[in-house]
Amino acid sequence: MRHLLSTRDLDRAAAIRLLDIAEDMADTQLREVKKLPTLRGKTVVNLFFEDSTRTRISFEAAAKRLSADVINFSAKGSSVSKGESLKDTAQTLQAIGADAVVIRHGASGAPRTLANSGWIDAGVLNAGDGTHEHPTQALLDAFTIRRRLRPGASRGAGLDGVKVTIVGDILHSRVARSNVWLLDTLGAEVTLVAPPTLLPVDLAAWPARILYDLDVAIDEGRPDVVMMLRIQTERMRDAFFPNPREYSRRWGLDDERLARLGPDSIVMHPGPMNRGLEISSRAADSAMSTVREQVSNGVSVRMAALYLLLSGNTEEGS
C-alpha cells in the first residue's frame, strides 16, 4: 500500500485484508510484551496542522508498538505559524528521512496534494483533512462493528447485511464521509439521519438512504448500529438548527431512544462527545456503547495501516 488517503481507494478485498491484519495486531496487544520489531529503523512523522488528542496519540502508540521512530510535529509553535508552506514543510521532512507521514490538515485534499506532489518520497496516511475524509476512523469503526456483531468469525468477513444508522452533523463530518463509502464497500446498509441543514448537497452520489427523523430510523429501520456524530460548532458560521435543546430533542440519542434499540444493537461515537446534546450520558456509558473500544481498536487498526504502508508490500493502495 503506497498511501492511505481515502476509503474510496479501498476495494472490498483490500479493506478486509487491513481489518484482518488489525485482528492480528490486536492479538499481539494481549501479550505481556506488546512491542513488535516490524518497523525498526523506520521513521514516522505525525504532521498535525489541526488539534487532536485521540488520533495523534493513537498513531504515536501504533508506530511505537511497531518499533518505529516517531517524530511529532504540531503546527503551533512551528515554522508553519510563521507562514511556512506545506511544500517547505514536506521538503524538511524529506531531508530528515521520513518514511511515513501521518497528516491531519484543515484543508480538504491536503494529504492527496502531499502524496502526489513529488515533494517527499514517504508514504502518506490521511489522519483527517478538512470536512473531506478520515479513513482510519472509518476502518476502526468497521473493525469495532465486526468484532461486536461477528464475534469469533471476524477474519475474512465483511459487514454484509449490517444496518448502520449515522446521525447528526453529516455536512461537516469527514468521519461520516469515510464511513459511508467503507461500510458500503463491506456490504453494510447505511442510513443517514440529520436536519436538512446539516446534510451535504451531493447526497445523490452517496450510497446511503436519507432520513430526517431519528424516531423513524429507530422504530422502522431497526438498526444494528447507531453512530452519533459530534456537532462541529467550530466549522459553523451560520445557525444550522434553532438551539441545542431543540437539536437534542429531535436528533439526540437520549435515554428513551436508547431503550427502544434492539438488545444486540450497539452505539458508537467517534469522539469527542457533547454529552447531553447528541448523546446522553446513559447512552454513552451503557453496555451497548463501544466508545472506549473504538479508542482501543484504533491503535490496532493504525498499526495495521502503518504496517501495510511501510512493510514494502505494494500489491494494493493508492
From TrEMBL:
Carbamoyl phosphate binds at R54, T55, R104, H134, Q137, G271, P272. It holds the Pfam family OTCace. GO terms for molecular function: amino acid binding; aspartate carbamoyltransferase activity. One of its GO terms (biological process) is 'de novo' UMP biosynthetic process. The keyword Transferase applies. Catalyzes the condensation of carbamoyl phosphate and aspartate to form carbamoyl aspartate and inorganic phosphate, the committed step in the de novo pyrimidine nucleotide biosynthesis pathway. This is Aspartate carbamoyltransferase. The lineage of its organism: Bacteria, Bacillati, Actinomycetota, Actinomycetes, Micrococcales.
